[in-house]
Amino acid sequence: MRTRGDIECWLTDMDGVLVHENTPIAGASELLAQWRAEGTPFLVLTNNSIFTPRDLSARLRASGLDVPEASIWTSALATADFLKSQMPGGSAFVIGEAGLTTALHEAGFIMTETTPDYVVVGETRNYSFEAITKAIRFILGGARFIATNPDATGPSTEGVLPATGAIAALITKATGKEPYIVGKPNPMMFRSALNRIGAHSENTGMIGDRMDTDIVAGIEAGLHTVLVLTGISDQREIERYPFRPDEILGSVAQLVRAEPFETEIADGEEGLEAGL
Question: Where do the annotations place Mg(2+) binding (predicted)?
Fold first, then answer.
């Protein structure tokens, strides 16, 4: 059985793990500094496809966290990486923001409104009825349907907003076509992240705050999984699922250690108490 001491590389979610509404979570800065000091390969993952890694690096820096853009992996980058492997030099009609269009451009894709190979739907704050109508018609005409992530809603200061999954569902209802979703919980996003840093599942850990995306995808990708309780999940949420993370911790602060720390699979109240 793998323990934390076997882990040489890390993938970590961003919101709810390192930051909460632009406020750094206790221990996040220290953990990032420890990884850099020890030369530990790591990537910060997010399903958010709106922003480029440069944007997100600047956002994290403003929150007091030093994460270079090369250490950020978004669902937009994973989507572009996947499409490049499927059809190098292909074309796409895109509903999304700069994070997605930039990633696709850098992957060699052409943005077009004339018989695209793919319709790619990502997150945006400006969903257009006209653009959605075009997407539906292209898919009915044979374009392959891709979504960056399945999240149906996203947060805002005023409350929830419809997100990628909600718009994809609208398009699915109109076309009868389900999208292929690249981002979490598809373990493909983790595999592309591992390739990015030259890591292997056998010695890589995944830190997340959601059982239904971070943890299940980490398990399916063969990673050592760590659930932190600073985001979405609590013990009641954990009990809803038939699978368990390898560890349950109060926050990433408990990963900041001078020496390797061995732990058994967290299970129920005993595992929770061990992690708090």
Answer: 13, 15, 209
Residue 35 carries which DSSP code?
A: H
Q: 4-47+184-255 — its CATH code? A: 3.40.50.1000
234 is catalytic: no
Residues making up the annotated binding site for substrate are 184
Chain center to CA of 188: 11
Binding site, annotated residues for Mg(2+): 13, 15, 209
Print pLDDT tens along the chain (276 aa).
Answer: 678 888 999 999 999 999 987 899 999 999 999 999 999 999 999 999 999 999 999 999 999 999 999 999 999 999 999 999 999 999 999 999 999 999 999 999 999 999 999 999 999 988 899 999 999 999 999 999 999 999 998 767 677 888 999 999 999 999 999 999 999 999 999 999 999 999 999 999 999 999 999 999 999 999 999 999 998 778 888 999 999 999 999 999 999 975 544 444 444 444 444 444
User: Catalytic: which of 13, 81, 151, 214?
Assistant: 13
Active-site residue, selected from the candidate residues 6, 15, 117, 151: 15
Whether the domain at 4-47+184-255 and the domain at 76-181 fall into the same CATH topology: yes
Task: Please report, for the chain, the start and end positions of each structural domain, with discontinuous segments joined by +.
Answer: 4-47+184-255, 76-181
Spatial CA neighbour of 46 closest among 81, 66, 71, 63: 71
Tell me which fold the domain 76-181 belongs to: Rossmann fold (3.40.50)
Nearest to 7 by CA among 29, 27, 35: 35
What is the phi/psi pair of residue 273, to 5°? -65, -35
214 given a catalytic annotation: no
